[in-house]
Every structure is written in C-alpha cells, then in structure tokens.
Amino acid sequence: MIEVMTSPTPSFVAKPTLIGKRVLLRPVTVADAPGLVELLNDPDVRRLTGTHGQVRPGVLERAEALYSAQAAEDDELYLAVVEPATGEYLGEVVLEDLDADNRSCSFRIALVGPRAFGRGYGTEATRLILAHAFEAVGIHRVGLEVFDFNPRARHVYERVGFVHEGTKRQALHWQGAWVDAHVLAVLADDWSRHGGFPASR
Prior knowledge:
By secondary structure, the protein is an alpha+beta fold. It has a domain at 18-139: 3-Layer(aba) Sandwich (Aminopeptidase). 29% of the residues lie in helices and 30% in strands. It is built from six helices and eight strands; from the N terminus they run ββαααβββαβαββα. The protein has helices at residues 33-41, 43-48, 59-69, 121-137, 151-159, 188-193, and strands at residues 18-19, 24-27, 77-82, 89-99, 104-111, 141-147, 163-174, 177-187. An eight-stranded mixed beta sheet has the order 1-2-3-4-5-6-8-7, with helices on both faces. A hairpin with a 2-residue loop joins β7 and β8. α1 packs across α3 (59-69). It is globular and about 45 Å long. Residues 23-185 form the N-acetyltransferase domain. GO terms for molecular function: acyltransferase activity, transferring groups other than amino-acyl groups.
C-alpha cells in the first residue's frame, strides 16, 4: 500500500519539477507560449480535443498571458512536458477544476504532433502528474473525458488506472457526425492498486 500524504486543504500552489526516464515535467513559462500556439494550431490536437473554430489573431499574446499567470494559481497546475536532454517543449499536462472540499480535480494532456506520439511520453507524463496529485497533494479523485475517436488516449488512461464511469452520448458534433465522450476517473485506491510509481511499470 502506498502511503499517501495529505494536506489539510489540497492546493496546486506548489509548482513541482517531476523527473521521469523519458520526459521531464516542469512549470510552464512565457518562453513555452510558442509551443502552446503550435499545439493549438495542430489539426490532430484540435480534433482529439474537440476544439471548433479557427485560432484567432493574438493567440500568442493570450498564450503568454496564460502561462505567465500560472505561477500564482493555487487551483490549477500547468506543467510543460519536455525532452530531458534537449529541453524541447513536447506539450502540457494540466490539473484543473480543483474541488478542495472533495479532493478532486480534472486532468488533461496535449502533446505536439507526430514527434511526441508513440514514444511513451504521454504515458510517463500522465503517471508523473498522477503521482504528484495523489502522493504529494492528497487528491482523492482525478477525472477526465475522452472522445470515442481517440482510443489510443483511452488505452493510456486505462493502463495507468483510470476506470470508465459512463458515456455522454453524442456530446460532440464533429464534421457532420456525432461523437460520444467517455467519462473516466482514477481514485487514490485505484492508483495504489496499480502500483503507483515507478513510471516504468
């Protein structure tokens, strides 16, 4: 059984650096904003996240403002996923929608294009940030939604302990077709049963 550290009131005020074998997670900075813009402009990322419309003018400035404000936020945690040897920005992992009373939050991850896919980056980044949520912050439940046309992501989530809780039928209208959204969550006990860390499991 993993010993879970709990604080009186869960908070994301601490912005950690989390080190894995394949990736390093660190607090986002303004210098990462062009990488976020690349994410927002990636057609595959937009489809898998169900993001409609076009990227509007001024997106770099908004990305810079978002990332620069993260150091002061206590109810959300944005960490950049980077390649350890080069420091290259590969994407972001986010814990948000913190409900401190119920020790729950939401999770999302986005990686930049083909150079970040199929290399285990997403799996390790997810495990790293879940370890922080459960073992350092004292979160009890982490939830997410994944669209039906993204089975690769759902496989990763279930591999690290997320459990399917239900389906929001026809939640997204994408290019003329209705797409279901699946609701998944991982509890502290689920995380413990999956062995927690190390990420190499």
